[in-house]
Amino acid sequence: MNLMLIPLVVLAGMGLSLEAGLIGPLGTEVGHLWATLSIFGVGAVLTGLLVLFFSPRNAPSFTGQPGWKLLGGVLGPVYVVVLTLSTPVIGIGMTMIAILSGQVAKSVLIDHYGWFGTPHKKVGGERLLALLFIIAALVLIAWD
């Protein structure tokens, strides 16, 4: 396992909390769909520039990929709309722990079965205990 990636992923997670803190109030002011469009518009421009300048020139054709691999493009906006709707109502902490519990629960299943071509990582007691702790955190934060 490349341990150097873990701090980067933790920072990205912190960025999601920051995004929730920004997009929730924006959605309240301008509308949830407009706020979502703003996030994806800016993201599309920045990603387009990265692709233009840093993408390998001999990469496989994007249009030649199976449709199921493009499902993430549908899930991203759904995630941001939910983030925009929920953050002003239940708060950033509750939104993030709820998202985390859903992410970890689904990730454990994906790893266990090796879906989408990922390597198999069997669910053991440690992973289940970690998931239970995250669910306990969700309950404790909701209790407040």
UniProtKB/TrEMBL annotation:
<keyword id="KW-0812">Transmembrane</keyword>
<dbReference type="GO" id="GO:0005886">
    <property type="term" value="C:plasma membrane"/>
</dbReference>
<feature type="transmembrane region" description="Helical">
    <location>
        <begin position="124"/>
        <end position="143"/>
    </location>
</feature>
<dbReference type="Pfam" id="PF04657">
    <property type="entry name" value="DMT_YdcZ"/>
</dbReference>
<keyword id="KW-0472">Membrane</keyword>
<dbReference type="InterPro" id="IPR006750">
    <property type="entry name" value="YdcZ"/>
</dbReference>
<feature type="transmembrane region" description="Helical">
    <location>
        <begin position="74"/>
        <end position="104"/>
    </location>
</feature>
<feature type="transmembrane region" description="Helical">
    <location>
        <begin position="33"/>
        <end position="54"/>
    </location>
</feature>
<protein>
    <recommendedName>
        <fullName>DMT family transporter</fullName>
    </recommendedName>
</protein>
<keyword id="KW-1133">Transmembrane helix</keyword>
